[in-house]
Amino acid sequence: MKAGPKKIVAGLLLLAGLLVLPHLLQFHHQDLLIFLTINVLVVTSYRLVTLTGEWSLIHAVMMGVGGYTATLLFKHVELGMWFTLPLAGIVAAAIAALLCFPLFRMTQFYFLIGSFAAGEAIRLCWIEFVNPFGGTGGLSGVEPPLIGDIDFLEPVPYYYLTLAVVGLCLFILYRIENSRIGLILHSVHWKAPLAESVGVDTWRYRALAFIVGSFFVGIAGGLKVHYLGTITPNQFGVGFMVFILIWVIVGGYNRFYGPIIGVIVLTLFDESIRSLEELRPAIYGAVLIVSILFLPQGLESLPARIRNLLGKGPAPADSSLTDK
Amino acid sequence: MNILKVDQVTKQFGGLTALDRVSFEVEAGEIRGLIGPNGAGKSTMFKNVAGFYTPTSGDILYQGRSIVGHAPHSIAELGIVRTFQETTLFQELTVFENVLVGCHIHARSNLLNAIFRLDRARQQAAADKATEVLEFMGLIDRREQLASELPLGSQRALAISIALASEPKLLLMDEPFAGMNPEETNHMMDLTRKVRESGVTIVLVEHDMKAVMGLCNYLTVLNFGQLLAEGTPEEIRNNDRVVEAYLGGGG
Lengths: 324, 251
Prior knowledge:
The structure holds two protein chains of two kinds. Chain A has 15 helices and four strands. By secondary structure, chain A is an all-alpha fold. Chain A is globular, with a radius of gyration of 21 Å. Chain B starts with a strand and ends with a helix. Chain B has a six-stranded mixed sheet with strand order 6-7-8-3-9-10, sandwiched between helices. A four-stranded antiparallel sheet of chain B has the order 2-1-4-5, with helices on one face. By secondary structure, chain B is of the alpha/beta class.
């Protein structure tokens, strides 16, 4: 996997674009940019979980686990963000590891429902145990870090921080997917019995994908709460989980960058129809239905489709030329 | 020395007895045929040996050790690998990737190795092994094709390649000749002999009598879940009970 000069230039241009971007936006949009960047990590980590073919409904709650972990550590142990962030991931991963034992006795539809139930149980704990979780009102008073005199309460510095953390996480996730582990995760998805027959412990790989995915979404939760300052159980409810699913499905889940395209395009789209107010959910739903009907492989399949359409036109003319 | 010993194995599904106190032994280095009319329990026997089912009673010994109750993946690690009926492949992966998955036991990676690419040498060894297997099975020219794009004969050869990549000592082949034309069957018979010559013991379940008679040194015949007869192809062909089971029964 050697990067050619073209790829390096494209990468540098992308990086420059991402660095300049916040300076071209208003304050409100800078906020949105931070949440979008965090959501990119949410969908990409979710993709790792889905690689084995199991779609869970607990990913949003795992983000909350990371968020609450960061909050409690910040408030009670007075740890800075440099410690709360990795610990947010580790606690989410640990809870995922415990949940593997009941959840991975199930597959497919039963796993979906089981993961949903487990997630709601965790969310109920946040609501019921007012001490330490703060109940429905949640917790507040979480602050971003201080490095010298850079104020991370400002959106632009915090955006850069988020970009760096998310960039590192995406790099690791990409590496995992393109390693032998990624290949085995795919094989578990497509033909679990065949994988088992050559010695793959499918249970372990399902669990691995779930635990690693939860680790990274836990970090995303930590990033979010340190910027927002407050956390409530409702941020991580079914509503947000449905958004994650929509982003991944509309973007397409066959490639690494599909869900990323999905979350970016749909966030921009949602923002552009803000003025329509109460019509927004209806339009959003319509877009979802249309995209599933006409682009079942997701937005990421669009370039190939356009190439196909364009290719079909001139192709016969070309072949007739070569025939002569 | 026997590599596999099936000892009084019974498998019941509710009230149905699929296997009834079946015993037989397989010698290292042979090609054993497991035959019998439809519903005789051949595939059930395979699944018991490969760990996909657990026998209701009885024991299965591999190189003298009981393997009853082991999960399929740990039985594969011991060296028993099965192939599947029809074409069970990773259809969405390339031929090369299919075989690379087959190398799993010897190329296992962990997260740190995967993220920091610390086990390049090991992964390179797996890639070399996959290339070697594909050359051996005559599939090397198709390595970048998707498994789903292969013709039937090559798909079967790929299924065996995946199994061989895991370096089995005992290969269980479930109906490798089903649905093949005579030319494909001949090719597959040659491949099977080649695999045996490379030092792998083979047990195969098969309906194609011509292939079975031409390939196996010894046959085990099941009927209605019970052991009906054992012997060389010549003996089996002249065994009245076997002839009756095939012609008289539903088969």
